[in-house]
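Q: GntR family transcriptional regulator, please. Structure only.
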Amino acid sequence: MLEHLEPPVADQADSETLAESVFRRIQAAIVCGEIAPGSKISEPELARIYGISRGPLREAIHRLEGQRLLVRVPHVGARVVSLSHAELIELYEIRESLEGMACRLAAERMTQGEIDELRRVLDLHERDAAFQAGVGYYQQEGDFDFHYRIIQGSGNKTLAQMLCGELYQLVRMYRLQFSATPNRPRQAFAEHHRILDAIAERDGELAELLMRRHIGASKRNIERHYLDAQSKTAKPRGES
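A: Structure for GntR family transcriptional regulator:
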């Protein structure tokens, strides 16, 4: 229960193995962009930074590959994933379809207690300092994540495994990257409230439609970002 809902404590090293702690620290650094997309992973450098032997480090790297945060490049080694524009749009097309389905199922299956908890999650998001300043949207993971809660509330274990397991951190990486687009945090928050209202009214058809529109809006936001980036890098003919 989340009666006293607060952000999770970042440092859980006391209750985790060293390998688990390092895995989570590298994961967070990748998702938050501290280790940039496309960066080559240097095992000796990471072992030095985190004070860990190569064995546990390689275990962490293997797990990050399983989450699609790292990719293995022949003759180069592991690199942080950097999706192309087309690949990112494909990812959002998958989200639009699968999360829409999850939202419909959640409207049919979530208990009233789970819906009340979800509303408290949005209340927490609204109090977030970055959101209040208009510079980003609340991006904690797991039970503090609006999308995660709905997917879990769908009651479909296969769907949850796909969206909250295999693809979850990769999606979070790009959600975080584009969350600071001007005006988007407020728009996303309003969309979340409309989705929650449809779930609370047990209107699965509307809930699915609103979730698909919500993710579609994020997809269009990404497309505008790429178009703006292209226009800024393009130079008039003859300009040196």
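A: Brief note, in case it's useful. The chain has a mean pLDDT of 86.
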